[in-house]
Design brief:
This protein has a single domain, classed as Orthogonal Bundle (Transferase(Phosphotransferase), domain 1). 22% of the residues lie in helices and 30% in strands. The protein has two helices and ten strands; from the N terminus they run βββαβββαββββ. The strands form three sheets. Strands 1-2-3-5-4 form a five-stranded antiparallel β-sheet, covered by helices on one side. A three-stranded antiparallel β-sheet has the order 6-8-9, covered by helices on one side. The chain is globular and about 40 Å long. The two termini are 26 Å apart.
């Protein structure tokens, strides 16, 4: 397993079979976990194809397992970054941390993707996905 991120708020690892495991810790870990699970379920229900798919979630361990959306992006111009996060809003979600560090590139279809939905907001106020 490869560690992609290890901070005070979370550890993110990539498994050899292409799954991403994220473990939450630190301030408001439960709240951030619950929000990311909720938003990923909403985006899947809304057929958003440029975000990870939630494969598993464990509320007791504060851990999610998602599909991988490719590799981190080192260079992306500001205009394209803004367009990508604006595309997400068409699915009723505002990311609330629209930085390049939350963009990946999925080589198999040449698509930029968005990750890390801990602080994202549902713009519709909908409850269309089950709670975690």
């Amino acid at each position: 397993m490869l560690t992609l991120k290890d901070t005070l708020r979370a550890t993110v690892r990539l498994t050899f079979d292409g799954r991403v495991i994220k473990e939450y810790r630190g301030p408001k870990a439960q709240e951030r976990f619950d929000n990311e699970v909720r938003i990923l379920k909403l985006l899947e229900a809304r057929n958003c194809d440029f975000v990870p798919r939630l494969l598993e979630s464990d509320r007791n361990l504060l851990r999610i397992v998602t599909s991988s959306c490719g590799s981190r992006v080192d260079h992306l111009d500001e205009k394209r970054t803004k367009e990508l996060f604006a595309d997400l809003e068409k699915f009723g979600v505002r990311h609330d941390d629209p930085e390049m560090r939350n963009v990946t590139y999925r080589q198999k279809d040449g698509r930029f993707c968005i990750i890390d939905f801990e602080f994202a907001s549902d713009l519709t106020g909908s409850d269309s996905a089950a709670t975690p």
